[in-house]
Structures are given as structure tokens and as C-alpha cells.
Design a protein that fits this description.
Blueprint lengths: L14 E4 L3 H12 L4 E4 L8 H4 L15 H4 L14 E2 L22 H4 L3 H7 L20 E9 L5 H11 L3 E4 L2 E8 L5 E8 L5 E5 L3 E3 L2 H15 L25 E3 L4 H5 L3 E2 L5 E8 L1 H7 L20 H9 L3 H7 L2 H10 L4 H8 L12 E3 L1
Parallel strand pairs: 1-2, 1-9, 2-5
Antiparallel strand pairs: 3-4, 4-12, 6-7, 7-8, 10-13, 11-12
Helix pairs in contact: 1-6, 10-13
Bound molecules: flavin-adenine dinucleotide.
The site of flavin-adenine dinucleotide has 31 residues, from helix 1, strand 6 and helix 7.
């Protein structure tokens, strides 16, 4: 049901969750399954509003490697799943290994701790069963690279659409929209006691007692709330010199190579495939653990960009999407902003003419690609 965090007559829920993105909704629904009541405090409403986004500004230190905040997070019911591309991937065992070339790379949890959750997470995200390894193909893998690692794509990407209704229908879940948490208060022995909350238009301010708190406010805002707590209590979260707020970065992405395949059918292997469950999947090249250790590489995957940006696909529809991505308004309507920017950066280069050629009838023939950009 919907609730009002400023209504003092409402009894406190057993668990308070900050954020109604995919993580907050997953936790609320799991608690519901266990018969535990929760209230979800969400800064945004059912639609995105600029006035709410503007409450969460930040100064970008490196704008060249990070999109503007409004392009990388959405403050609304369903959170950033309203923007995301829906690619679901599993952790690999090496992600949890301490590697001498990854500073502070040790995790307080192990691969074995998290792997049992791949299945429910994949189903929650509408990406089908947690099958993240594809069958090998002849010459596909060697000691240094494999091509069996799969990304699975969510059918319905938006958690608001897929799960928002179930959360609102539950008698155990109280969804409080337009409710911004500005501060978390702790008792002397470090237990969370209260939250400072404000309505997103600033007209109401209140303090909300909490019994148990889950902060699911997304990577940046969870850190911001924790840094606020550390400002008052410097010993928290590993201390001021600890890892909190450090090592954050956006995806590092780039095209690094044209890969020429010996046989054209290998190109199709790296295209989107629909599996038996109707989920789209895509193979990726991945350096083996041994190769990563040898080259001092953190876990990296490579996949073809060719689907849209490389005019050699000779497909009119893909070229049209690529060219439209350069038009701000229309491009924003059809592509996530970070993806649109990535394509439109190249649009005035030599490839635009090649894409225009793909729109002519003579070009609408099957692709003869044997080479893809990774
Ligand atoms: C363009 C784009 C493409 C992406 N593609 C992929 C992809 O293909 N695969 C992938 O795995 N990930 C992708 N991501 C990342 C993915 O969207 C996020 O990892 C995911 O949404 C995080 O979920 P979350 O619930 O932790 O946080 P969010 O989805 O950010 O939700 C947090 C919620 O908390 C609310 N909130 C924040 N602060 C407060 C506060 N103080 N008080 C009250 N409420 C608050 C916000 O309004 C928001 O609704 C992509 C992201 C973008 C922007």
C-alpha cells in the first residue's frame, strides 16, 4: 500500500528501507514473503521530476569519464532501473580474490556467499534462469580467452513496472513516495534510531523512528548518507582514511580492437541470441583468471559494438537508430542517455556517410560481416 511517512498515527514498520530502486523493492518483497512489515522511503514519485533530481547534485571531478548525474541515476519509483540497459551478469570467483595489482581488493563476503543469490536475482530482474555460461564452440576458447561468458537481458527492465504493483498491493509494505531521507541518527552505541525526512517539495520535515534500517539508495546516495554519518562519527565505516567514498568510478569503456573472424558464422555467435526461455543473451570474450593474473588486469570483458555503431552491419534499421542518436530529443527518447552520448560522439566522423548509405534500398541485404569492433 501507499503510505505517508509524515503521518504520526502510522505504526513503525519492522524494517525501514531507503530507496525504491530494484534493490529496495527486492528487499521489501522478500520481507513480505517472510511476513515481515517494511516501509520504503522513496525520494521520487511515480514519474521523474527535475525538481527531485536537482536535490541530489554533485560536482563531477572527471566529466570526461562520467556522465552527468541525471543521466546515470533516476530518482523515482523503480530507481535507475528506469534507465538501465538490463544487462545482467554474474560475479566471477576472481572478483572476490585478493590480487596484488588491485588495491584494497578484499571483500568481506566470498563468492560462495553470493552465488546462491544469482538464481533469485536473475528471476527478479526478468532475465530468466541464472545461466551465465554458454556452450563452448570450436576454437572459441583457449588458455587465455574464453567466449562462454554470457550477459542475460532483462525482459521488462523497469522494476517499477515489474514489481511496483506487487509492493503496493502488499499489506506488509508501505511505500512512501516523495520522501527524502536527509540524515541518519545513531545512538551512542552506534545503533540507528531515527531518520530526518523531508517531503521532496520541502514543505514537510520530520523525524522518523526506525527499528531496523536498510539503505538501498543507489551507489552514490548510499555513500552520501554514510559519509554524512561519518562526518559526525569519524570512527564509522573503517574510519576517515578507510575505503568509504573511495574507488568509485563509472564504467571504463572503449573500443580497443577490430576482430576478424575466420568464418562469418562466428559473427552470429556474438550477436544477441534468444534462449529457450525467450531471454536475450549475448556472448562475451573474457580473459581467463590466469591471463588476468599474468597481465595484471582486473576482470574485463569484451563484446562487439558492431550491432549499432559499426556501419558494416549494413542494416538500415540499426543505422537509423545510430543516426537518430545524434538528435538530442529523439535520441533521448529511444536510447539511454549514456549510450546515446557514446554513439553521438562518433556521429560526425567518417561513419555517418556509411550509415546513410545503409538507408538506401541497395544496401538492405544480409550482412556479410566477418569483422567486428570489440
Ligand atoms: C544508462 C544506464 C544503463 C545501465 N545499464 C546497466 C546494465 O546493463 N546492467 C547493470 O547491471 N546495471 C546497469 N546500470 C546500473 C543499474 O541501473 C544500477 O546498478 C541499479 O539501478 C542500482 O539499483 P539500486 O536499487 O541499488 O539503486 P537505484 O536504482 O539508483 O535506486 C535508488 C533509489 O533510492 C532513491 N533515493 C536515493 N537517495 C535517497 C534518499 N536520500 N532518500 C530517499 N530515497 C532516496 C532514489 O530516488 C532511487 O529511486 C545502468 C545504469 C544506467 C544509468
Amino acid at each position: 500500500m501507499f503510505g505517508d511517512a509524515f503521518d504520526r498515527s502510522q505504526s513503525a514498520a519492522e524494517v525501514t528501507i531507503i530507496g525504491a530502486g530494484p534493490v529496495g523493492l527486492a528487499i521489501a518483497l522478500e520481507l513480505d514473503r517472510l511476513g515481515i512489515s517494511s516501509q520504503v522511503l522513496e525520494a521520487g514519485g511515480l514519474r521523474r521530476r527535475r525538481s527531485v533530481d536537482s536535490l541530489f547534485t554533485a560536482q563531477l571531478q572527471t566529466p570526461a569519464t562520467h556522465g552527468p548525474l541525471e543521466a546515470v541515476s533516476a530518482k523515482m519509483y523503480g530507481g535507475t532501473s528506469n534507465l538501465w540497459a538490463g544487462a545482467c551478469v554474474a560475479y566471477d570467483p576472481i572478483d572476490f580474490k585478493e590480487r596484488k595489482f588491485v588495491s584494497d581488493g578484499a571483500w568481506p563476503v566470498t563468492y560462495e556467499d553470493v552465488s546462491p543469490f544469482f538464481e533469485p536475482a536473475s528471476r527478479f530482474l526478468d532475465a530468466g534462469p541464472a545461466e551465465f555460461i554458454a556452450a563452448n564452440v570450436a576454437h572459441g576458447s583457449d588458455d587465455e580467452f574464453s567466449c562462454t561468458n554470457l550477459a542475460r537481458f532483462a525482459g521488462e527492465r523497469r522494476s517499477q513496472v515489474r514489481h511496483g504493483g506487487a509492493a503496493v498491493r502488499s499489506a506488509h509494505i508501505r511505500v512512501c513516495l516523495n520522501t527524502v531521507v536527509t540524515e541518519v541518527f545513531l545512538s551512542g552505541d552506534g545503533v540507528v534510531t531515527e531518520l530526518a525526512v523531508a517531503s521532496s517539495d520541502g514543505s514537510k520535515l520530520s523525524r522518523l523512528p526506525v527499528r531496523m534500517l536498510v539503505v538501498a539508495a543507489g551507489g552514490i546516495e548510499t555513500t552520501r548518507l554514510a559519509l554524512n554519518m561519518q562526518r559526525d562519527r569519524p570512527e564509522l565505516f573503517g574510519g576517515e582514511a578507510g575505503p568509504l567514498g573511495r574507488y568509485y568510478m563509472s564504467h571504463l569503456m572503449g573500443s580497443i580492437a577490430d576482430v576478424r573472424f575466420l568464418k562469418p558464422q562466428y559473427v552470429d555467435l556474438f550477436d544477441f541470441q534468444k534462449d529457450a526461455n525467450g531471454t536475450y543473451t549475448r556472448r562475451r570474450f573474457q580473459p581467463s583468471e590466469a591471463a588476468q593474473e599474468k597481465w595484471g588486469l582486473s576482470n574485463t570483458v569484451l563484446w562487439p559494438e558492431g550491432a549499432i555503431a559499426d556501419a558494416r552491419h549494413q542494416r538500415a534499421l540499426l543505422s537509423l537508430v545510430f543516426l537518430l542518436s545524434g538528435a538530442n530529443g529523439l535520441g533521448r527518447a529511444i536510447l539511454p542517455e549514456v549510450v546515446r552520448r557514446r554513439y553521438s560522439e562518433n556521429i560526425l566522423g567518417s561513419t555517418a556517410a556509411a550509415h546513410l548509405r545503409n538507408l538506401t534500398p541497395a544496401a538492405s541485404r544480409a550482412s556479410g560481416l566477418t569483422q567486428m569492433r570489440f
